[in-house]
Design goal:
This protein is α+β, with helices and mostly antiparallel strands. It has eleven helices and four strands. It has one domain: Cytochrome p450, CATH 1.10.630.10. Helix 4 packs across helix 5. The structure holds protoporphyrin IX containing FE (HEM).
Length: 247
């Protein structure tokens, strides 16, 4: 089933009878499959709550304003070669000195696509960091870079960067859909975030890219039982890079 309306999307995301489609639990220790079986993103119930709590506690030790300043400085230092900057800045704040393995591990993290390269990258990260730090780096990597790419497509000279990011998140979300399993029927449900974020019942002139909207009721950071725990961190990293590029 495909969900496109904002109200229905919120209802499914707030209902504990809908869970993330289960991931395999029998991966060899230290592989991508094993990692996916350990993390909050793909777990439910009490394990999810406990794992998510650990991440929230870790995130609380990070200062979004500091991430923003650092992302801006590193982007400027590199003459605009911004790729990798958000992940490096987040890594440094989490005490992870080398984040070069993150893109290869992140590539299969959400999709579940296993490969020797992804397994090697996960093994490398496990030598450098604990599970909460790895989870945060893998969750954030592609989404923050995707947000920056999308914001750059919409940017006009003189734009307010925070307003640009809020409207980009609504109209051009880096994660375009999320899936759930209906535990009563076994049916899979896809929530189309692009359509929900353009639902005319919630957004006036939804097709208009309008910086005056400010933070809006978009569902790009999820909703309900298991929303993104790091919207402030994601926005800070993206804003810092955009400031380094545009100001
Ligand atoms: C623009 C950037 C980002 C977007 C759009 C985004 C979006 C999301 C969404 C939609 C979910 C929930 C998925 C679902 O309900 O199926 C999620 C979960 C999560 N995000 Fe983000 N995210 C972003 C950046 C980040 C960053 C930078 C971090 C880490 C610092 C992060 C950490 C997480 C974690 C750990 C979860 C899993 C939470 C749980 O289920 O317990 N995200 N994110």
């Amino acid at each position: 089933m495909l969900i496109t309306r904002h109200a229905e999307a919120e209802a499914v995301l707030a209902d504990t009878r809908y869970v993330p489609p289960p991931v395999r639990q029998d991966g060899a220790e230290g592989t991508l499959a094993w990692l996916r079986a350990q993390v909050s993103r793909f777990s439910t119930g009490e394990p999810h709550a406990a794992r998510c709590r650990l991440l929230t506690e870790r995130l609380a030790t990070l200062d979004p304003a500091g991430l923003r300043t650092e992302a801006r400085a590193r982007t400027k230092d590199r003459d605009g070669a911004w790729r990798g900057v958000p992940t490096e800045v987040l890594g440094a704040a989490l005490g992870v000195k080398d984040t070069t393995a993150v893109p290869a591990a992140a590539a299969g993290y959400l999709s579940g696509e296993e490969s020797p390269e992804a397994d090697a990258a996960v093994a490398e990260l496990l030598d450098l960091a604990d599970l909460p730090a790895i989870t945060l780096l893998l969750q954030g990597h592609a989404a923050v870079e995707g947000l920056i790419e999308a914001a750059l497509r919409h940017a006009e000279p003189g734009d307010d960067i925070d307003a640009l990011l809020h409207e980009t998140l609504r109209q051009d979300p880096p994660l375009q859909a999320t899936r759930r399993l209906d535990t009563r029927t076994g049916d899979e449900v896809t929530i189309d975030l692009v359509s929900a974020n353009r639902d005319p019942a919630v957004f006036d002139h939804p097709e208009r890219f309008d910086l005056t909207r400010g933070p809006s009721a978009h569902l790009t950071f999820g909703h309900g039982v298991r929303p993104c725990p790091a919207p402030a961190h994601a926005l800070a990293l993206a804003a810092g890079v955009l400031e380094g590029l545009l100001s």
